[in-house]
Amino acid sequence: MAVASSSRPGESSPRRESGGEEDDEYALPSDYKAYVPVAKRRAQLASQLGSRSKRVKMSDEVVKEMEEKKQEEDEEEKAREKARRERTLLQAAQEVKEKRAIEDASKTAGQLAEEKEMALLKEMERAQKKLAGAKEIAEGTVWTESLKTTWRPPGFIRDMSEEEWQAVREKHHIIVEGEEIPPPITNFQDMKIPKPILEHLKRNGIKRPTPIQIQGIPTAFTGRDMIGIAFTGSGKTLTFTLPAIMQALEMESKIPFVRGEGPVGLIVCPSRELARQTYEGLQAMCKALKEGGYPELRNLLCIGGINMADQGDVLGRGVHIAVATPGRLMDMLDKGRLNANNCKYLCMDEADRMIDMGFEEDVRSIMSHFKYQRQTLLFSATMPRKIQDFAQQSLINPILVNVGRAGAANMDVIQEVEYVKQEAKMVYLLECLQKTPPPVIIFSDSKNEVDDIQEYLLLKGVEAVAIHGSKTQEEREYAIRSFKTGAKDVMVASGVASKGLDFNEIQHVIVYSMPKEIEDYVHEIGRTGRSGKTGIATTFVNMNTSEQTLLDLKYLLMEAKQKIPEFLLSIDDPRAAHGTSLKGCPICGGLGHGIQDCPKLEDANRRAQAASQKYAGGGY
Ligand SMILES: Nc1ncnc2c1ncn2[C@@H]1O[C@H](COP(=O)(O)OP(=O)(O)OP(=O)(O)O)[C@@H](O)[C@H]1O
């Protein structure tokens, strides 16, 4: 009798003998295959396939079967994992959605609208590239330190505490942003301005600095990048021309400039007239310096429509400061007639207008001519948040000096808004002219209307000149000259042609057609009420004026504490009902609308898109 095997199924018995199997009740079937767990099978297969020397011959069929099985198992596991992940994501998304719904339910429609606006603004900012030269962008040059100058505030001001400085700022309604802000200085003598310039300023009635000058001049003198925002007629020009003179004087005193050298300072303006006016102011100060025994500083006016050969003498002996419009400047730089190799100081007057007018690319192209680090300054009366943010990215550790809200009207202008039917405007204009003695400026945005008004006034015996973009350079210069000297009583102008112009004591500005953009209105009425004097602005509105523009106007009048006519009072702001906070539109600064309704939105988007395409296409 066979001995019962103590071994378990699957274990081979060394004592089993052949032939006795059929009697053994524990005997395994002949086709029995021992169970091998998958992991072990896989390991076996791997070792069989992996080591050639030890490879056991297996039929191709078995290998294939096992591989397929493994693949199947892997795929199943992957599918399970994917489903698990999807479930988790779905759950998380659902939770966020529910949470947001709860939050949104507690938000006002105004808050939701604001959030939407911020998202829109962020989108636009992403498309906008910083204002820097193509070379700097391409080479990734990043300047981190501000430019150093030798100028220091007087010791007694340096010794004052930060709280004392802040008290001075508060007294003059100066708001500053930035790091290590130089102290405000409340008189020109303490700013260490050369005596001949001080005397020249005094002769012109400029005895004490205005708020923008109190903080802006020391900031610029120390070499810091700066954004200067202050209302129209508040003396921004001096704030950026004086530092250019100081830089030039310092350089000239070290090594006198010779042919082909310079400029050390570059001031870019959006219009020829404004450039000429700034140049003339500079010339007068440099003349005073020279007469006072200081070295001669040579300035160059670089604008379209004039013959540069007339300034051959300046070009031939080296230029200290150039005042330019973007187009002519670019041309001169490209042709090598002027270079920015030694240029340390770049200022853009009416910087936001320049960007609005499509000069942004020109400015970048000008910047690419700079060889070394520069000090950059941007000025305007209306610098909307969007441009401030964009500018801040482009400057080095900049200081923002702000007097009043950007885009606010000058408080020295009495604003009168009148409802005048379109067909009655011309006749009423004559009556309106009687409000004050001359000089008076009349603004219209249409060139044809400018011509029509001038013709009508001439017919009625009023001495009027006209200026707009389609006039020749001679006509423009003649108009400005004869108006400035008092030979003509009235100037009819398109807004663009007269931005930033400083005419003597304009009594009355008539806004014949209300511009679509409130910023333009602020600049237009700002031709009066300059350097602390009071002026009047009369604005005609009617059915042709959009409700949104009227709303912007209403808020501007409210802010400037002006009388608001009944028909403006009756216009309701749909946003107020939603509880939207009435901050200025970040694109144009208007108080009566948000980004989505901004008249400049389309333009701003188009420009941002064009810029990003140019970048993407390697245009830089
Ligand atoms: N400290 C001062 N005291 C008195 N008058 C001044 C002072 N500074 C500048 N002015 C005069 O004030 C007038 C306006 O100055 P400026 O043209 O610089 O204004 P602005 O701020 O640039 O205005 P806008 O924004 O319209 O261009 C000029 O005639 C200028 O000579």
TrEMBL record:
InterPro entries: DEAD/DEAH_box_helicase_dom (IPR011545), Helicase_ATP-bd (IPR014001), Helicase_C-like (IPR001650), P-loop_NTPase (IPR027417), RNA_helicase_DEAD_Q_motif (IPR014014). A motif (Q motif) lies at residues 186-214. CDD domains: SF2_C_DEAD (cd18787). Residues 57-84 have a biased composition (Basic and acidic residues). Coiled coil: none annotated. Residues 1-12 have a biased composition (Low complexity). Residues 186-214 form the DEAD-box RNA helicase Q domain. The keyword Hydrolase applies. It comes from the Eukaryota. This is RNA helicase.
